[in-house]
Amino acid sequence: MSDVTVIGIGCELDRLxxxxxxxxxxxGPPGRDDLRDLFDAVSGPLRAGEAVIVVVGDWLPxxxxxxVHTVHSLLQTDRVAVHVTALPPLxxxxxxxxxxxxxxxxxxxxxxxxxxxxxxxRLDVLAxxxxxxxxQHPSVSMLHHARSLLxxxxxxxxxxxxxxxxxxxxGAQSVPLAPAEHPLELLIAPSENADLSWxxxxxxxxxxxxxxxxxxxxIHGPEWWGTSRLVEAVGVPSSLEWLAKVTLSEAPVPCAWxxxxxxxxxxxxxxxxxxxxxxxxxxxxxxxLTGATYQTRTSPLESAQAFADVDRRAEP
Length: 316
Known about the structure:
Blueprint: E1 4-9, E2 24-26, H1 35-47, E3 51-57, H2 62-75, E4 80-85, H3 89-102, H4 109-114, H5 116-121, E5 124-129, H6 142-147, E6 155-160, E7 164-167, E8 184-190, H7 197-206, E9 211-214, H8 221-225, E10 230-237, H9 240-248, E11 253-254, E12 261-262, H10 283-290, H11 300-314
C-alpha cells in the first residue's frame, strides 16, 4: 500500500532513506495567510485518490491544531487522519518521514495511521543541553536547576526508552541506554554553539557504537528543550523491514463505523471509539464495506470554492 501522503506540520525532514517516498514537511505553524497552502497540500493528494495522514506536534500554537481541523472540515472527507504527537521537534520530523517510508509496507492507510504511536515508541529520543532550567519533559530536580546556573554546565537528557537527566561528562558514564537488537542510526541536530562530546562519547557508544548522521538544527527545538545550546538526537531504526515487522505485521480489522482497516480504536479517519466489529452502518461507511462507490458530500473542488467563500467573508 503506497497511496497515502504524509504531511508533517512543524516537521523538517522529507525522507530518511534513499529512494523512499517523501513526506511533505511544513516547518512553520501555518498562520492565517498559510491556510491556503495547507488546504492545497491536503486536497491535492485527495484529488489524486490518495489518503492523507497529517502529523502535527502538540507543542505548536493552539491555532495550528484548529487550522488543521478547519481544513479537514472544509474538505468533508473520510480520507484524512490527523495524528497529534508529543514527540519533540526532531523526533516528530523523524516520525513523519518514517510514516512515509513505511507506507508501502502497510496493509492500509488506516493501519499505518493507527500504528504511528507504536512507531514513535520505537525511537530513542535524547538530547544534550546547555541548561535544563526551562526543560519541561522529563522532570528536573532542584539540584539540576541550580547546576544550570553554573558557567559551563551541560546535561545529557533522555525521553525514550527511559527518561533521565544527568550532568554531561566525557568518557565512561552510566546512562540508561542499551545496544539495540536491530540496526540503528543516531540522527543528531546540533545548534551552532553545541558540544557533541556527550553524544559521541557517551550516548552513541551506549547504544552499541551506532553510526551518527548530522542534520540541520530544528526550528522549534530550542523552544521545546528550553535552551539554544542544544543537540537533539534520535535513534532511528535503519531497517524498514524490521520496523514494519514489529509495527505493521498484524492483520487490521474494519473500523466499526467507516470500515477502514485499522489496528485499534479510535479510528484515525472517522474517530469512532468502538472496537472494530460489524454493526449497523450508513452512507460511505456501508459503501466502504460493500465495495460500492461513494461520493463524499463535498468534493475537493467544491470545498475549494467553500474555502474561497470563507476568505471573502473574512475580508474587511
